[in-house]
């Protein structure tokens, strides 16, 4: 699912869920969707979800013994997005399966693991999206000729 948040700052947000580790085609479809959006916009992008890629070590940016996950890692890296989750999100292993990507540094802030849920084997990922807008300094001066002191000039 893709959505565009427009106020106070325009940001494109993608939410994804891949439910089967072995379904290579669904990851390819997700990556194609991400590549399309990245190629079409200059707006900041945030992509998050459960990508179920246990063969990817996101800390060292390496694929571990699984050729299709090596290809997937290469495609993720080629998008220019940066993966921000640096903790395990799966309770049964040290894998980081739930991911958050940003296109501009500083868009994702305050990222941390949540409390384990009784109905899930994934640890929730909490994060905030920085919505502050850059303020532009007014460099144009308006001269007030009606109130000038002609004698001082």
On the 0 to 100 scale, the average pLDDT is 86
Count of distinct strands? 9
Structural class: alpha+beta
Order of helices and strands: EEHEEEHEEEE
Biggest pleated sheet: 5 strands, mixed
User: Which consecutive residue ranges, at least 5 long each, have pLDDT under 50?
Assistant: none
Euclidean distance between termini CA atoms? 64 Å
Q: Helical segment tally?
A: 2
**Strand adjacency order, main sheet:** 1-2-3-7-6
Shape: elongated
Q: Fraction of residues in helices?
A: 10-25%
Rg, rounded, reads 22 Å
Strand content: 25-35%
Task: Please give a quick description of this structure.
This protein has helices at 24-40, 67-78, and strands at 2-5, 11-17, 45-50, 56-57, 62-63, 82-83, 98-102, 108-113, 125-129. By secondary structure, the protein is α+β, with helices and mostly antiparallel strands. α1 runs parallel beside α2.
């Amino acid at each position: 699912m893709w959505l565009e948040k427009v106020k106070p700052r325009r940001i494109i947000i993608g939410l994804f869920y891949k439910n089967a580790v072995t379904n290579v085609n669904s990851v390819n479809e997700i990556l194609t969707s991400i590549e399309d959006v990245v190629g079409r916009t200059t707006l900041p992008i945030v992509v998050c979800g459960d990508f179920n890629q246990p063969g990817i070590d996101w800390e060292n940016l390496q694929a571990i013994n699984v050729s299709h996950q090596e290809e997937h890692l290469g495609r993720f890296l080629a998008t220019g997005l940066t993966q921000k989750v640096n903790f395990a999100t799966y309770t049964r292993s040290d894998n980081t399966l739930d991911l958050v990507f940003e296109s501009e540094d500083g868009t994702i802030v305050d990222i941390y693991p949540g409390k384990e849920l009784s109905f899930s084997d994934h640890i929730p990922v909490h994060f905030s999206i920085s919505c502050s807008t850059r303020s532009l300094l007014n460099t144009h001066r308006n001269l007030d000729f009606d109130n000038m002191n002609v004698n001082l000039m």
